[in-house]
């Protein structure tokens, strides 16, 4: 039994942030109903990396396990009625429509809470639902660029570089997940439903609580140096350095210990906290000049011996083969109806009493349409009529 067993979530979201938030609720046991167009959600047709799959591409599969699919045309009165009846049975309603779309479809907070006053209504947007940027497209790279984070890494004069993951999408998803859980707890205590508003811009700001506080409170400017550096507000050395056969990551090691490990006595004369910032380029250049003399494995052994923070730089093939990743069970393997045996990232948390689990793989378009309408009391004949009229789609 999952923590959220018995709760129902209506997921009207697309792309990554909304579907990921809903999937996390499903991982904890909620009955997540993915409401998508009769042609299927956008992510089904836009496979990241070109990984198309048999009937479900890798992108959609990774974001939509533990959900049932209801494929319905919300532009029809009959389709809206179905989702309204479904919302009346739900605990959480989640959408990330562009401004104005929810209202036009009758899926706005006023309509849904009127049908179900105790519902937790989660509304997700790119920049906020009002204000000068409300109509702008909320896309991960654009928010990374606007967040300021790109200018906290790298070298002065080099182009700003995005993160190697869809960081803002993920942060926004977890913000929505957290907000939904908090609102459900509030409802348990008071019986009241409420609206939860989440936007990518605020999520990107909030996750930089240290960096932005250093700027706003400490008045320390965000300044990249001449040498590549992992983060403007962390002392040197901090970043990735070339070795004889690859790369190694160094994370603010003690300068006295590093001096011995690298055979660079001049480092021992420096103050880590003060010089690590004011002489950042000099320290980085010294370290970078020495590391190509040995292999990554040799340096890692030396750094470990001196209790210095260092680690390997992995690609995905290295990551999935790592013994700690295997020990943690970081990936889950299960059988999918059309894709066969699949292995995907698992769960970011563990619960001793009610652990998250994979109960079903990502659904096909409308795979559960007939099942859900039967639960809502629709006779099979009426469902068949709605399918014939194009209001619904089914995968039998």
UniProtKB/TrEMBL annotation:
InterPro entries: CoA-transferase_III_domain (IPR050483), CoA-Trfase_fam_III (IPR003673), CoA-Trfase_III_dom3_sf (IPR044855), CoA-Trfase_III_dom_1_sf (IPR023606). GO terms for molecular function: transferase activity. Keywords: Transferase. It comes from the Bacteria. Gene3D superfamilies: Crotonobetainyl-coa:carnitine coa-transferase, domain 1, formyl-coa transferase, domain 3. The keyword Cytoplasm does not apply. Pfam families: CoA_transf_3. The keyword Hydrolase does not apply. This is CaiB/BaiF CoA transferase family protein. It comes from Nonomuraea salmonea.
């Amino acid at each position: 039994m999952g923590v959220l067993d018995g709760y129902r979530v209506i997921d009207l979201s697309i792309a990554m942030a909304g579907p990921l938030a809903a999937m996390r609720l499903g991982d904890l046991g909620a009955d997540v109903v993915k409401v998508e167009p009769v042609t299927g959600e956008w992510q089904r047709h836009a496979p990241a990396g070109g990984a198309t799959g048999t009937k479900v591409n890798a992108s959609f599969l990774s974001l939509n396990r533990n959900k049932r699919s209801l494929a319905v045309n919300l532009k029809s009165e009959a389709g809206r009625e179905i989702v309204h009846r479904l919302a009346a049975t739900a605990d959480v309603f989640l959408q990330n429509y562009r401004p104005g779309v929810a209202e036009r479809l009758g899926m706005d907070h006023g309509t849904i809470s009127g049908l179900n006053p105790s519902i937790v209504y989660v509304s997700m947007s790119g920049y906020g639902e009002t204000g000068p940027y409300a109509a702008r497209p909320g896309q991960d790279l654009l928010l990374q660029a606007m967040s300021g984070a790109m200018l906290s890494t790298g070298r002065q004069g080099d182009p700003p570089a995005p993160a190697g993951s869809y960081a803002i999408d993920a942060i926004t998803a977890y913000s929505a997940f957290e907000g939904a859980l908090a609102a459900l707890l509030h409802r348990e205590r008071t019986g009241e439903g409420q609206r939860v508003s989440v936007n990518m811009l605020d999520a990107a700001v909030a996750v930089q609580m240290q960096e932005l506080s250093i700027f706003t409170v400490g008045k320390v400017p965000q300044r990249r140096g001449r040498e590549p550096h992992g983060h403007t507000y962390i002392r040197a050395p901090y970043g990735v350095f070339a070795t004889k056969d690859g790369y190694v990551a160094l994370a603010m090691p003690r300068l006295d210990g590093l001096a011995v490990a690298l055979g660079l006595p001049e480092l021992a004369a420096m103050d880590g906290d003060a010089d690590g910032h004011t002489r950042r380029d000099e320290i980085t250049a010294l370290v970078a000049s020495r590391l190509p003399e040995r292999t990554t494995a040799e340096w890692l052994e030396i750094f470990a011996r001196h209790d210095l923070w260092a680690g390997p730089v992995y690609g995905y093939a290295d990551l999935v083969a790592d013994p700690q990743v295997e020990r943690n069970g970081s990936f889950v393997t299960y059988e999918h109806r059309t894709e066969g045996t699949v292995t995907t990232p698992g769960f970011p948390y563990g619960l001793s009493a009610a652990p998250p689990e994979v109960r079903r793989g990502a659904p096909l378009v409308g795979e559960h349409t007939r099942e859900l309408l039967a639960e809502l009391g629709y006779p099979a004949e009426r469902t068949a009529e709605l399918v014939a009229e194009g209001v619904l789609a089914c995968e039998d």
